[in-house]
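A common beginner's mistake is to predict each chain separately and then try to dock the pieces by hand. The better habit, illustrated here, is to supply every component at once so that their relative placement is modeled jointly.
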Amino acid sequence: MLLTEIAPPRFDVDLDLRYATADNLTGRPIYHRALCLLHPDAASALARAVVLARGIGCRLRVYDGFRPAEAQWRLWQVLPDPQFIADPRQGSSHSRGVAVDLTLLDAEDRPLEMGTGFDDMTPQSHHGRTDLPALIQRHRACLLGIMVAAGWTSYPYEWWHYQLPAAGRYPLLSDSVTGGKLLTT
Ligand SMILES: [Zn+2]
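With all components supplied together, the output reads:
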């Protein structure tokens, strides 16, 4: 397959793929199975982030990676707000396999307090907020530092979202690259 599967033991990450559960903004599973895929370039950058996170005694918990173009339409139908959901006509970097949603876990595998949950589409999720408790700002800065040092770029409105620079040079992909195995019907 064109995409690389992100899973232990090859990638020392914790997987919490919310779109394979009902615990996402649509309230129902979008993925048929909990499968995290990334373009090989993004997989390499994630491997660097794994090493950097380990350096500060943390691990990465991944919420989403490749999101087939069809899935982007389903999210858009629920929340047609381009600040939080990429317009599927333009395409999401997730649908190019070069974006990842994630957080940091401490040495006991507890998620670091980030002030909001994943996919909390509110201003509290924006980067660069100075009105959050210092510890939360520090945690977000840790994740930001790890990801940027590993070659990712941040997105101003979502602390959990990172993508490769110039993501538009990668093609949009449909579920056909997984053999149609990822999406629910
Ligand atoms: Zn994202």
